[in-house]
Amino acid sequence: MSVAVASDGSALHHRGRYPHPASVRPLLRDYAAMVHTLTGLRALPLPVHADDSGQLAARLRELSDDIGAIYLTHTDPARARAAQQAVHDAGGPVVVTEQDTTAVTLTAVLLTVLARVDRAPRTSQVVIAGAQTMPALPDLLMAAGIGDIISWNPADRTGFPLPIVTRDADAIIDLLGGATDIARAAADRPQLAVIAPDEPDDHLLAVPGLLRALTESAHPVLTIEVLHGCARAITAATPPARLLPELTDADLAGAVADAAVRELDHPTWHRSVHRGRRRLDHARAHESRQAGGDRPLAP
């Protein structure tokens, strides 16, 4: 069984223009080589020419039956999610997006940060700034046991300034790229942990092990619980002086694969990543009821 590392380059656009997919081939080749080195899987770098999510999904569905899973990277997030859903609906190979694995890494960092300040997840409050850009993340944090999750977006700024929203928070996950709102919130509360996808390769930490698990499992379905298993494995592999393990850690891919396989082959109640938006709206409504209507609900 093989895997593919694919991209249409649409996340790398500059001044409104998308680069030719072939321009990402060297990057895809490096990622594929890493997957092969850490798992032994045959990994194919696959630049894809596509003008929209429909074309992208069609190209991915056309891949050989030998392809058991696809990692879709450096692709516009909305386009990647739409293509992932379309391939899933058509019964194609499992597609893992860069957003999925970035959410895993952010969750792993959060769990490490909370543990080091002796905060139990169930008693912690976490604000996701820019939650609409990563719909799977609130569900993943719920699976990780975070007791209070607040989804905040720039549209909430007037009614719910971020420094006020974060006044009781233990951590804020910054998906806005260091916006002024984040800086103000952090300045008001120096003890607030700010977690962001800073390092360019951190999204790769779960990739080799997750792809291996998906090719080995008899039930290869990407679920929130599978992503949570990957996050727990990354947290467990993190050295004391770091927030994340090294990508080259020889044992990490195996640990992530084992955790993912346990969730894949012994499922309890699984929440598919393909229903994330509906559940995010439900979570926001639940948060609003808990707070008497005072939680930001901007879509």
In whole angstroms, the N-to-C terminal distance is 40 Å
Output mean pLDDT: 88
- As a whole number of angstroms, the C-alpha radius of gyration is 19 Å
| Strand order in the sheet with the most strands | 2-1-3-4
CATH architecture of the domain at 116-198 and 276-290: 3-Layer(aba) Sandwich
For the largest beta-sheet, the strand count, sense and barrel status come to: 4 strands, parallel
Structural class: alpha/beta
- What is the 3D form? globular
Number of strands: 8
Order of helices and strands: EHEHEHEHEHEHEHEHHHH
CATH class term of the domain at 116-198 and 276-290: Alpha Beta
**Uncertain regions: pLDDT < 50 for 5+ in a row?**
275-299
Please count the helical segments. 11
> How much helical structure, as a percent, in the residues?
40-55%
**Strand content range:** 5-15%
Q: What is CATH's topology name of the domain at 116-198 and 276-290?
A: Rossmann fold
Q: Looking at the chains present, what oligomeric state does this protein adopt?
A: single chain
Can you characterise this structure?
The chain is of the alpha/beta class. Among the domains are: 1-92, Rossmann fold (3-Layer(aba) Sandwich); 116-198 and 276-290, 3-Layer(aba) Sandwich (Rossmann fold), CATH 3.40.50. The chain contains eleven helices and eight strands. The strands form two sheets. It has a four-stranded parallel β-sheet with strand order 2-1-3-4, with helices on both faces. A four-stranded parallel β-sheet has the order 6-5-7-8. The N and C termini lie far apart (40 Å).
